[in-house]
Specification:
The structure is a single chain. The protein contains eleven helices and seven strands. It has a seven-stranded mixed β-sheet with strand order 3-2-1-4-6-5-7, with helices on both faces. Strand 2, helix 2 and strand 3 form a beta-alpha-beta unit. Helix 7 runs parallel beside helix 8 and helix 9 runs antiparallel to helix 10. The radius of gyration is 25 Å and the shape is elongated. The two termini are 38 Å apart.
């Protein structure tokens, strides 16, 4: 491909920020230099340190999201902005704006819907040892539960097609939004790619907003909820197997006594074991029914995804089509 991959594309750079006044100016300037034709949006999430003013002075379009949490910001960004390609990064300066062009090139050449900039060296320096351990744990857990599509599900440097952005439900509230994005792509079997990039350190005076235990617990809870919603048979099957094992443990000595003496002296234990067995069968049945519903929802999401236009740059005559669509979007907005 000759020239910049983003040359004929409508590119939007999306930067969710919370108290990043010390770094956001340089980040905006970096993206303006790396992607001169792109529109840069900074979404301020109740910052108290002048983040919005600094971003505005650097040349970004600043918008606000009052509900606290990265998930709320991402949902608002994806709803508000119309573009062919979306570049999402953090405002803390840990991701290099110069890598954005290569991420876009990978999206176009691979005809992918999401390209993740995996973080080289994040396990060695993720701010704190707890963060590095959490990254390893969550990535291994993701691969065990949802598949091997991704090696760094918590990376905040991503490039999306319009198809992905407008078909992504975005129900998370906080930093677990990246996990939800990865599960969405795996669930619908969307074409994705990864590109290993250098991961920088925060400059002096800039502090991470992540809490090792609080945000880690939220991500684990999101894993459980996404497992329930996308793989209910496995989720409820595991619960059913656990309850059945407990039932058999309580039931075994009672049955041994019955077959030996013909008597049941521990009636409460037998009643408990029987109740647990019934609960196990109910959980198994619920998993079967909900698995059919989950497949139906996935089919509907896939149909909606296919109803959206593919990446314009890859289609013959798509630039003219995009120009025709612009007045319609303007009229809708009006």
């Amino acid at each position: 491909m000759r020239g910049p991959a983003s040359e004929n594309l409508d590119v939007a750079v999306l930067l969710p920020c919370y108290n990043e006044a010390g770094t956001i100016g340089a980040v905006v300037q970096g993206f303006r230099a790396a992607l001169p034709q792109a529109r840069i949006y900074v979404y301020d999430n109740n910052s108290t340190d002048g983040t919005a003013l600094t971003a505005m002075l650097a040349g970004a379009t600043v918008m606000r999201e009052r509900r606290q949490g990265k998930g709320h910001v991402v949902r608002r960004m994806f709803c508000d902005i119309e573009a062919d390609v979306y570049v999402m990064a953090d405002g803390d300066g840990t991701y290099a704006p110069d890598d954005a062009e290569e991420l876009i090139r990978t999206l176009v050449t691979e005809r992918a819907d999401m390209v993740v900039g995996t973080r080289r060296g994040v396990h060695a320096d993720a701010g704190r040892n707890g963060h590095a351990f959490g990254n390893r744990l969550f990535n291994k857990l993701y691969r065990f539960l949802f598949g091997s599509d991704f090696t760094d599900i918590l990376s905040g440097y991503r490039v999306f097609s319009r198809r992905f952005v407008k078909s992504f439900p975005a129900v998370s509230a906080g930093f677990e939004i990246e996990t939800e994005m990865s599960v969405h792509a795996s669930r619908l079997k969307l074409p994705v790619a990864e590109l290993e990039l250098d991961y920088g350190r925060r400059p002096e005076g800039s502090h991470s907003k992540l809490s090792t235990f609080r945000d880690g617990a939220k991500i684990l809870w999101m894993f459980a909820m996404l497992m329930k919603e996308t793989r209910p048979f496995a989720f409820f099957g595991a619960i059913a197997a656990t309850i059945m094992a407990a039932s058999l443990i309580f039931m075994a000595p009672v049955l041994v006594e019955y077959f030996t003496t013909g008597l049941v002296s521990r009636m409460p234990t037998w009643i408990l074991a029987t109740a647990l067995m019934m609960m196990s069968l109910l959980a198994f049945t619920a998993g079967l029914i909900l698995d059919s519903l989950a497949r139906s929802r996935a089919e509907q999401l896939r149909i909606h995804y296919l109803s959206l236009p593919a990446l314009a740059h890859a289609q013959p005559g798509a630039r003219a089509d995009r120009e025709k669509r612009k007045p319609a979007r303007t009229a809708d907005a009006a």
